[in-house]
Amino acid sequence: MRRAQGFYTRFLVPGKMMCSSSSTAAWGGSSERKLITGTLYGTDTAPPDRNRCLSSSPFLSISSSIAAKSVTAGLAGALSFSLAFSTVAEAKEPPSPMFLPKDVVLYQYEACPFCNKVKAFLDYHDIPYKVVEVNPFSKKEIKWSDYKKVPILMVDGEQLVDSSDIIDKLSHKINLDSAVVNGDEEAKWRRWVDEHLVHVLSPNIYRTTSEALESFDYITTHGNFSFTERLTAKYAGAGVMYMVSKKLKKKYGITDERAALYNAARTWTAALDGRKFLGGSKPNLADLAVFGVLRPIRHLKAGRDMVENTDIGEWYERMESAVGESSRIQA
């Protein structure tokens, strides 16, 4: 147990984690609270009281786009959709060349759901961006910044932080403000992503020891780890997070992880109310937020079960077709 505790503090909480809400006192001790915050929120999200819980840990695979290479030979190939190519052309919204940023760099953890939320926005709008994968131990890649969490997005030399704020500010920069439709509804569901959806994901992806190992296999395969760090993370991390998932269930009053996940998926599809997207004929920021957060888990067992037992798969298919190929470029 002492060995697990050492991993717990050195690996899963590699840097300082800050939670501004006093309600987290109910989670237990300081180190426990840090770990739960990191695994639950990833790097940035707003609890219901709007206080920010921010962590430098990459292990929230909740929501996390956890499509392990061992589970799928490639995200695009594993999920095939029967949508016409015209749908992609209609949905895409590249910014006007006069508003297109010249240099965009994303500092991220590959498995972080909030980093994936930012990438969904960039990919959908065909904004070219470079990626710098941050090592969760040393965080040397972001030593230049006073902000020690991810995602960090550098846009033409300006630092943007916190996934929702990044998307808001970047939307303004590329002049999307005038295109907002149903703004109140969109804002409501963006909050729902940060305040509810993310809470049901971690208990699901760490639900069993085999699912925890599957999740960490993706994290360690795609993250910036040394060989030793990768081995430590996969096996010790999976064991610790399996135990932590039980605490998360109690914290959020979840009795059945899968039922909570399915209910969240059904809540979202009910909100669509027969529309292709919440935004109507095209995805809006809420669509992109839900899609980005779910993309890391789509091909994990939790994500596969969710698609098999709810109607969210049809919307997800439309979203993947609409978002299209990644606009990431080589650094």
For this structure, the CATH topology of the domain at 104-323 is Glutathione S-transferase Yfyf (Class Pi), Chain A, domain 2
Spatial strand order of the main sheet = 5-4-6-7
CATH architecture assignment of the domain at 104-323: Up-down Bundle
Amount of helix: 40-55%
Shape summary: globular
Beta-strand percentage range: 5-15%
Order of SSEs: HEHEEHHEHEEEHHHHHHHH
Rg value: 19 Å
Number of DSSP-assigned strands: 7
The low-confidence runs, each spanning 5 or more residues with pLDDT under 50, are 1-41, 45-89
Mean of the pLDDT scores? 77
Structural class: alpha+beta
> Which sheet architecture does the biggest sheet show?
4 strands, mixed
Topology:
Blueprint: H1 2-12, E1 18-19, H2 30-41, E2 44-45, E3 53-54, H3 75-78, H4 85-91, E4 104-108, H5 113-124, E5 130-133, E6 152-155, E7 158-161, H6 163-173, H7 183-205, H8 209-222, H9 227-251, H10 257-272, H11 285-294, H12 301-309, H13 312-323
Parallel strand pairs: 4-5
Antiparallel strand pairs: 1-3, 2-3, 4-6, 6-7
Helix pairs in contact: 1-9, 2-9, 4-13, 5-6, 5-11, 7-9, 7-10, 7-11, 8-9, 10-12
Keywords: Fatty acid biosynthesis, Fatty acid metabolism, Isomerase, Lipid biosynthesis, Lipid metabolism, Membrane, Prostaglandin biosynthesis, Prostaglandin metabolism, Transmembrane, Transmembrane helix
EC number: 5.3.99.3
InterPro entries: GLR_AS, Glutathione-S-Trfase_C_sf, Glutathione_S-Trfase, Glutathione_S-Trfase_N, GST_C, PGES2, PGES2_C, Thioredoxin-like_sf
Briefly characterize the structure.
The protein is α+β, with helices and mostly antiparallel strands and 331 residues long.
